[in-house]
Amino acid sequence: MMGQQPIIQTIDVRKIYGMGEISVAALDGVSIIIEGGEFVAIMGPSGSGKSTLMNILGCLDRPTDGRYILDSLDVSEMDRVQLAHIRNNRIGFIFQSYNLLSRTSALKNVMVPLLYSRNNKRSAEERAVVAREVLEAVGLGNRLNHQPQELSGGEQQRVAIARALVNNPLLILADEPTGNLDTRSGDEIMELLHELHQNGRTIVMVTHDPEIAAHTQRTIHLRDGQIERVVQNGSGPTAKENQGVRHESH
Amino acid sequence: MNLTELLLLAWESISSSKMRSLLTMLGIIIGVASVIIMVSISSGTEASIEEQITGLGSNLVYVTTSFSRGGAREGMGMPSGGLVYEDAFAIAEEVNGVAAVVVEQSSSETVKAGNVILEGVTILGTTADFPSVRDMEIDEGRYFNQREVDRTQKVVVLGSALAEELFGDADPIGQTVTVDTTKLTVIGVFAERGMVSGVDFDSQLYIPISVVFQKFTPSQFARFIGDRVRVIYVEIESPEVMESVIQQISFLLAKRHDVSLEEADFNVTTQQDIIQTQEATTAAFRNLLAWVAGVSLIVGGIGIMNIMLVSVTERTREIGIRQSVGATPDDIRWQFLTEAVLLSLGGGFIGVLAGVSGSWIFGYVSDMRTVIVFSSILLAFTSAAVVGIFFGFYPANKAAQLDPIEALRHE
Ligand SMILES: Nc1ncnc2c1ncn2[C@@H]1O[C@H](COP(=O)(O)OP(=O)(O)O)[C@@H](O)[C@H]1O
Ligand SMILES: [Mg+2]
């Protein structure tokens, strides 16, 4: 894996909200490199731009300025349709608030990304089989037909993880995945993410909890839309030393 | 997404909120049902008019009094013009192409037979050719002849319903019926005929017109100008002579009444004229109904748009979630458009059921006739679909243009 093209490369990415006097730079020149197979945490005070960065990395949003290269593709130049395709088959996004479709079973929720898949057309039966396999893999084989409101927070987040995985994405992004959970469910979710990392997945996760961050390979600290510092955590298989982040100062 | 997936998705959404879906469809249901019901009513009306007209007898020319115009007699202090009994004889004798002439004059009187008393019965004074010209058939006995008319014989022929009312099961022939104070002998009973142009032929009483003149509508002027009549029916020999007969009658009567054609105190109309007038009336009626129905369909479409817009707002988060896992603007657009069309078609289908059964029930409980027209079902159903696409497009587009992040943040 190493020595190849990085999975994520952002070059001087900016995101400006508003115009003129009242404009806010949510991201103010962020350049990061994340290699395949890495598990990276992003930390920073509230309002420092973590979610903004994740949304751009997840192709939900486009930078005002700068470039974002995802797996050798310059996605900062792409239109809405192309971004939708990228979201569908390259990225699995996990939200703090799960974002499951209400009044829709776990199985149906996990099947949704398959419905919008272009390069892998499956029949409804095939979609159900695939979704079921992934739900079983996250330990929800016995909750297939439960609707979100019938599931605990931890279970809902696992459905969301299954949905993120179902199209076998290149990159998993998680914005405070344990933020709404109690310690025990949070730990279970973290275990699941570590397991995915062990299996070779590339994961970028926002967290407020230093202890959780410490269990990843690297922590990128944001402040006021800029990278404050990058810490190598040393646990687990380390990524290439000093690769991945250049400290930019403005 | 392919069509099956789209339909399935739309169906899931529609069936997950049944009440909202029903309310959305309501406008279309009402629109489609009203199109079908209204068309069925106007077609029913047309059909019964046609039936009545053919029931009037063929090749008839009607000569009626027109009171709106003055005549030469006005100055003499006499009633201003109008048809008189002698006009009928003049037509019969002087006009070429005439097969038969019948005169009618009516009056409303109290009728007694035994201890049965009926009030306000229509007494129709006619002449001998009446049954053949008006397509009436004698069931029992006979009709009176011209000799009896000329001699003012006190005989009477009964409508079938009237005979039943006056005599029940007993044989009315030879019995006496008292009209006002005049005693008449029953010589015949008509077969059942029913309503024709709003007149119930079965409940009338038919007597020689001379008796009506003498007993029921005596006029102090009769001695100068003759007895007045309401209408003269002229049966012509064949349709080809229609034009010529009308012209001859017009000239003859103008001369007899001493008026110019422009200020004639009579009207000559044909069955064709009556058909045309009635057809024009029903066409206007049908157009009006079509407009009302069309407007209600549009209102139904606006209802769909309204609820779809609300639905897009309500489901903003769902849209955001779908976008976040890879739905393109087109995917979202098609999802909402499919829903709108499916709702319209569903509404159209229910509307067709409601319209067909509504027409049927309406025809059953009212005395108006309804004829369900298949093309109106097709038309209403297609318009519902078109309305759904048209009014579903704007909300669907709105949904498609939502920004994923903002949509996800929506509560
Ligand atoms: N849609 C928006 N419009 C205006 N300002 C925004 C918007 N989204 C985020 N911001 C601002 O950008 C900054 C970073 O926000 P965010 O990335 O959500 O922070 P974090 O996730 O680190 O708490 C904040 O100051 C926030 O107010
Ligand atoms: Mg945040």
Description of the structure:
The complex is a heterodimer of chains A (250) and B (411). Chain A is of the alpha/beta class and 250 residues long. Chain A has helices spanning 50-57, 80-89, 106-115, 124-137, 153-165, 183-198, 210-214; strands spanning 8-17, 24-34, 39-43, 65-70, 73-74, 91-94, 171-175, 202-206, 218-223, 226-232. In chain A, the strands form two sheets. Chain A has a six-stranded mixed β-sheet with strand order 6-7-8-3-9-10, sandwiched between helices. Chain A has a four-stranded antiparallel β-sheet with strand order 2-1-4-5, with helices on one face. In chain A, helix 6 links the parallel strand 7 (171-175) and strand 8 (202-206). Chain A starts with 7 loop residues before the first strand and ends in an 18-residue tail after the last strand. Chain B is of the alpha+beta class and 411 residues long. Chain B folds into two domains: 3-52 and 277-409, no CATH class; 67-264, no CATH class. Chain B has helices at residues 3-16, 18-55, 85-94, 130-133, 146-150, 160-167, 209-216, 222-225, 242-257, 271-314, 316-324, 329-365, 374-400, 404-409; strands at 60-65, 98-113, 116-126, 138-141, 155-158, 176-179, 182-190, 195-196, 199-200, 205-208, 231-236, 266-270. In chain B, the strands form two sheets. In chain B, strands 2-3-10-5-7-6 form a six-stranded mixed β-barrel. In chain B, a hairpin with a 2-residue loop joins strand 6 and strand 7. In chain B, helix 2 (18-55) packs across helix 12, helix 3 (85-94) packs across helix 9 (242-257) and helix 12 (329-365) packs antiparallel against helix 13 (374-400). The two termini of chain B are 27 Å apart. The model of chain B is unreliable at 69-75 (pLDDT under 50). The chains are: A alpha/beta (250), B alpha+beta (411). At the A-B interface, helix 2 and helix 3 of A face helix 1, helix 11, helix 12 and helix 14 of B. Bound molecules: adenosine-5'-diphosphate and magnesium ion.
